[in-house]
Structures are given as C-alpha cells and as structure tokens.
Amino acid sequence: MQRNIFExxxxxxxxxxxxxxxxxxxxxxxQWESDRLIDRSAWLAAGKSGIVGLSxxxxxxxxxxxxxxxxxxxxxxxxxxxxxxxxxxxxLQDDIAIPYIVNLGTDEQKQRWLPGMAVGELIGAIAMTxxxxxxDLQGIKxxxxxxxxxxxxxxxxxxxxxxxxSDIVIVVARTDPNAGSxxxxxxxxxxxxxxxxxxxxxxxxxxxxxxxxxxxxEDVRVPATNLLGTEGRGFVxxxxxxxxERISIAVNAIAVAKAAYRWTxxxxxxxxxxxxPIGDLQNTxxxxxEMLTEIEVTESHIDRCVLALNADELTAVDASKGKWWASxxxxxxxxxxxxxxxxxxxxxxxxxxxxxxxSRIQTIYGGTTEIMKEIIGRDIASQ
Length: 383
Known about the structure:
Elements: H1 8-35, H2 40-49, H3 69-80, H4 84-104, H5 107-118, E1 124-127, E2 143-147, E3 150-161, E4 168-174, E5 184-190, E6 196-201, E7 212-223, E8 227-228, H6 234-268, E9 272-273, E10 276-277, H7 282-310, H8 316-341, H9 351-359, H10 369-382
Parallel strand pairs: 1-4
Antiparallel strand pairs: 2-3, 3-7, 4-5, 5-8, 6-7, 9-10
Pfam families: Acyl-CoA_dh_1, Acyl-CoA_dh_M, Acyl-CoA_dh_N
Domain Acyl-CoA dehydrogenase/oxidase N-terminal: 8-121
Pathway: Siderophore biosynthesis; mycobactin biosynthesis
C-alpha cells in the first residue's frame, strides 16, 4: 500500500540520516554494544549532521522543526540498521528532554541549555522512576526542600535513560509533602553539582549500548532558577508531554516491526529446506501475509497519530492506544520473525537477534501496556 505521509523534504532528509548512520554509527555499533555504552562522539556527529535537536528553535541553535515526520524518518532508518541503542538515547533527548525545556523553560534556561542540546554537546535525561516506584508516580519519595535561593534535593532514581552521559537531568521531586498530586515539581540538576552522583550502569537484557543508570541525590543544592515550569505543577507538566513521549515509542515500535518483517521476507526466500526456499511453504507465506497486514493497518493508524500530533490534536488517550498496540505488535512480529529465521535468528550477528532482545522493553517503559489500557478504560468509563 502506498503511504502518503512523507513529502519530498522528508525523503531528502532520509538520505541524510541514512548516510550519517552508515558513516558514523554502523561501523562502530558492535563495539559500543560490547562496551555497553554509545560513545559521546556519536552525539557530536549527530549534531553536526542535523540528526539531533530538530525541535530546538533556530534562535537557540536548532533546526526549529516542529514537524514530527522528520523524527519519524530518523526512527525508521535507525530501525532499518538495527542501531536501536543509539536511537533510544536520541529519542529521550529529542522527544522528552528538549521538549520540556522548549515548552517550560524561561528565556534564560533556554539560552543556557538548548544550544548545547541542539548539537549533541549537552545530553539530557529525565528522572522519574525510583527503586520502589514505577508506574505509580505519586509514590515518588525524592524530596526538594526550599532553602533561601536554593532547593535541596535528596533521593534516588533508577532506570534512567542517558543516566551515565547526561549533563542535565530533569528531576521529579516532591516539593510539598502535604499537597498530594499538586506537591511535585521539576528541577534541573546539572553535571558536577555537589551531592549528585551516578550509581550503577545497569546491565539490561537488551539495548546494551544505551546507558541506563541509577542516580543518587544527597543534599544536592540546586539554584531556584533551575525550577522548570511552575512549582507544584510537576504532574501537570508530565501529563502535558505524555502524548509526544508515547507516540514516540509507538513510532519506534512500528518502525522496528516493519524492519524485522523486511529482513525476514528477504531471508525466507534465500534459506532452503526440503529442496526449496522456505518462503514457498504455505505456513511461511501465511505468516508473512498476517504480519504485513497487521503492520500496514497499524502503520496507517500511527501515521494519523503523527499528523494529529503535528496539528496539536493528539490526546493522551489516543497516544496510549497507539503506544500499547504498536509496541505489542512489535513484540509479536519480532518473535515470529526469529522463528522464521530458525537457529540463525538467535544469533546476535543477525539484526533480527538484536531486535529480539531490544524489543522487549517497549511494552514496559513510557507506561506499561496495562497502564495504557487503564488510561483508555478510565476515559471510556467517564463518558
């Protein structure tokens, strides 16, 4: 089926992304996965090639691109090359950290942080999850207490994407213990602040090269000017960014599912069993037919969601629908593709093997499938 979401500018940009990945990422990726850390040089190269910081306004050194279709192109090309550890960190920067600064930051904050983020010199992270708190953000125990012109932060965070490399961390902290959901605020902690330290670089099942870490805050003194947004509206700010965060995961999910299908479609007509390509077996053809149909139907829906996001019409509920469905589809398609590869599908030198271990997290982070269904269900019940 012919897609019509992309225009000439998007396809021209695709060539830029493809050339960048071939030159800077693919030759080094295996080593970075082995090291369990994408080198910072990749971020600087991405900055020079215009692959990071697309939504940073031009006055702060970015491209000023609000059209999410360009990020969609990046996701598709990263999926095609199976370099998803790099893509995961990039998504955190472009789809979460930068939008928080752009949408909530003061002019001074934007001038201080956005130019570096736009060129890959400053890497951002957001610290929500804690050792005893996952999807239940109201259980956050990290505190920030006002002391004159500073906030004093104490607490621990875990599963933080870009946790090792991050130069600025948007920390969700409880600033009023008696205000319930209105007692949380966002504070930006910067690299080198006394009392701010990194814990373990976590050893994950997949996305090996993507740096995920524990963060520790021990009497970290943060200037009052590092308050991001409005005091006490931290939860509101988080909710405002959820449509973008969750559709970002959905976009990456459908991109990976499509890449896995294409690798497998090619492979089954090269691999022979019983004297003929396994693609000539009815079971294989049925599997391909089912996967292609599901992918195209889902892709059409995600395309609509991206256009709605561009028009500022994508709701948190619709983003939740796209997130859970596309990520579950990704998991299902990749698993079937491994099966069709046989033993070679379990080998990490094949991209389908890497996709298999990297895909499992998609139905968990950004809100689990169960949380997505609960959000949708509550909306249904309220009508």
